[in-house]
Design a protein that fits this description.
Strand content: 15-25%
Structural class: alpha+beta
CATH superfamily of the largest domain: Periplasmic binding protein-like II
Number of domains: 2
């Protein structure tokens, strides 16, 4: 009997030691770290043979750099979260296992349950390379309380550029010395908004159908569509109707809105939950709306942003299979609903959205519904699927650098757009 007991202990030890260990690197800071860890803990309860080390690595750029270094060192992570603009670079890297490879062999995975608006960004040449996960689009947030104060209809937010400018003018408040203490709007100084306004006007960012029917060889945004947005940005800035932030300073833009220093904010749908809570704390009523359009322009659609999950090649195939199980779990309805409620990122599945609708969630949380409707009612084509560019970070840098010169007064909108085009094309050429 004692020998049997000893044998049992040995077998148990072997089983414990045989646990498959994988690493999951993500870029979600703040309260989202705990949300992600809790979801992974649930995964490990359901899969006791898999141990997941979850690590907040920093920004998307830091994850990409550290992933490249880890691959070179022979110690790559198993699952990494990267932003949408890393898609072409990751495809070209040769170090990933496309999730399509797993889907084709997994009869339990029904890709038909996923929103095509989301899948279409990460599907290139008919193949899904990464799993959509934290999916967002931009949204117009506005302070209904301030709208009432200045005589604007709180249930009729601006839908055109001219209406937006007029609302901003009414929101301006000055102190007794004539200094502006409140103004109209802000958004982070980030190329993503320029890209959105190209798609919103049903225009591509780069050639070859946004890089989807052939690799992008040049940008095509130096046109009336690009100029309309730059001219709006320039006008709002010059008239003191807008406060500009430093590059990609999402926190500063949100804080300007939360503190009621501005009456409107264009930011990510992932801010919905945060702004709902903060508006209550600050004692004002939050409103949400579709992005305003240039006057006389027909609406195209918004592009998804955020990030996706990539599976990195490993020597141990068991670890690769464990990585797929984790990625597949995080895309299931339950985790997607948890993620959506905690952050505002979209549920990427139709069945998750249906469950929330039946439960009355969207009736109780109309701002989440605004975000969903803007995505679902947009035109679906190459222009709204988003651009695929190997040198996307450099293209964004070219656009942001030009925008900085424009808002500082060093360049006109047309000059800034031409410079952005020139530097972006240089970056694309150098990538090849």
């Amino acid at each position: 009997m004692r020998r049997l007991f000893v044998l049992f202990l040995v077998l148990l030890t072997v089983f414990v030691l045989a646990k498959v260990k994988i690493q999951f690197w993500h870029a979600m800071g703040g309260w989202r770290i705990e949300v992600i860890q809790n979801m992974v803990n649930e995964f490990m309860k359901l899969n006791p043979d898999i141990e997941v080390e979850v690590q907040y690595v920093g920004s998307y750029e830091e994850i990409l750099a550290k992933t490249v270094a880890a691959v070179k060192a022979g110690t790559p992570p198993h699952v990494v979260q990267l932003n949408e603009i890393s898609t072409q670079k990751m495809i070209d890297s040769g170090v990933i296992v496309p999730v399509q490879d797993f889907i084709d062999k997994d009869p339990t995975f029904d890709v038909g349950l996923f929103l095509p608006q989301v899948l279409n960004y990460y599907r290139v040449g008919g193949k899904l390379y990464s799993m959509p996960w934290n999916t967002s689009t931009p949204l117009l947030y506005y302070n209904k309380t301030l709208f009432k104060e200045v005589g604007l209809d709180p249930n009729d937010p601006p839908t055109t550029f001219s209406e937006l400018i007029e609302a901003c003018r009414k929101l301006v408040k000055k102190d007794e010395k004539g200094n502006i203490v409140r103004t109209g709007i802000t958004w982070p100084l980030y190329s993503w908004f320029f890209e959105q306004y190209m798609a919103l006007q049903n225009q591509p960012l780069v050639d070859n159908n946004n890089g989807r029917t052939g690799k992008a060889t040049k940008v095509v945004f130096n046109n009336d569509a690009g100029l309309r947005f730059f001219e709006l940005w320039d006008k709002l800035t010059k008239e003191g109707l807008m406060i500009n932030t430093k590059r990609a300073d999402w926190t500063a833009a949100r804080q300007l809105f939360i503190s009621q220093t501005v009456g409107m904010l264009i930011s990510s749908t992932s801010d919905v939950a945060l702004l709902m809570n903060e508006s209550k704390k600050q004692g004002f009523e939050l409103g949400t709306a579709f992005l305003p359009l240039p006057d006389g322009v027909q609406r195209g659609g918004v592009i998804i942003g955020g990030g996706s999950l990539w599976i990195i090649q490993q020597k141990n195939k068991t670890e690769v299979e464990a990585a797929w199980k984790l990625v597949k779990y995080l895309a299931e309805p339950g985790p997607q609903i948890v993620w959506h409620k905690a952050t505002g990122y979209y549920p990427i599945r139709v069945d998750a959205i249906h469950t929330l609708h039946v439960q009355g969630y969207y009736a109780e949380n109309p701002h989440h519904l605004t975000a969903m409707l803007q995505l679902l009612t947009g035109v679906q084509n190459y222009n709204t699927q988003g651009a695929i560019i190997g040198a996307f970070p450099e293209v964004r840098d070219a656009i942001e650098s030009a925008a900085e010169k424009m808002i500082s007064g060093a360049m006109t909108p047309r000059q800034a757009l031409s410079e952005a085009e020139r530097n972006a094309n240089k970056a694309i050429k150098e990538y090849f």
